[in-house]
Amino acid sequence: MKLMYLTANPEAAIIAENAGVDRIFLDLEILGKSRQIHLNTFISHASIEDVKKLRAVVKKAELLVRCNPVHKEIKSEIDRIIADGADIVMLPFFKTACEVRAFLDAVAGRVRTVLLFETKEAVECIDEILSLEGIDEAYIGLNDLHISYGMKFMFEPLADGTVEYLCKKFSEKGLPYGFGGIAKIGEGLLKSDYIIGEHKRLGSTSAILSRTFRNEVDLSRPIDDFKGEVELLRRREEEIDLWNETDFEENRRIVCEAVDAIVHRITR
After folding, report:
1. What is the total count of domains within the chain?
2. Torsion angles phi and psi, residue 3, rounded to 5
3. How far apart are CA 267 and CA 173, in angstroms?
4. Which tens digit of pLDDT belongs to each residue from 72-85?
5. Cα–Cα distance between 192 and 213 in angstroms, integer?
6. What is the span of the domain harbouring residue 173?
7. Cα 102 → chain centroid
8. Which of 20, 48, 118, 154 has a CB 3.0–4.6 Å from the CB of 141, allowing a cystine?
């Protein structure tokens, strides 16, 4: 899988790149992010000037930039992002094919594009959206998607089949896709050890490294060896590559039971 590391810090980007991270992810999304203000989630404080700063230091990894949702200045925003060196631009929080078309028109084939599916409205019109030309990849944003469906835990859409439904749609179109976030091995409310199994079962080819890789949550094993933590993830991938169908079914059962238990704990 392609591992993505979320940062606007050039020094952190260099460390992540040297550790084997495939993509440096710069998040410029600000418009509408107040919807998450009550949650313990990441809200970017990056600025568009950070594109050029990261481009200057990122040499081996790809530079992916998440722009704002479609707005009246989206064309000029994307022009600047591309001019300053982004390899890939991601569109967040869209609800209609019309919004996606405006984004694709603004990019105009100059760089690769990723659509971030994170609203129930986007799920409901997925066929119309995926019929558009110019989409290179898709990603499922579990934070906003679970909120959109009124769920309590971000991995509920993974357990209830929503993620699988979307993955099948992407696969039918021949698009690479990924979903959610992955914590350090052995960590996370839902252990990354099992989540990686679901990525493999569903054909996912990318994942964002969670905030445990920035020492923002769960300090049971603080990051002081980024490369070592990435190697642990890669080792788990290699183990799962040897699984058979029964192994994947058992892992799926474990994930669903764990999600149910977490939701019960949250809501009781």
Report:
1. 1
2. -95, 135
3. 38
4. 999 999 999 999 99
5. 12
6. 2-267
7. 22
8. 118
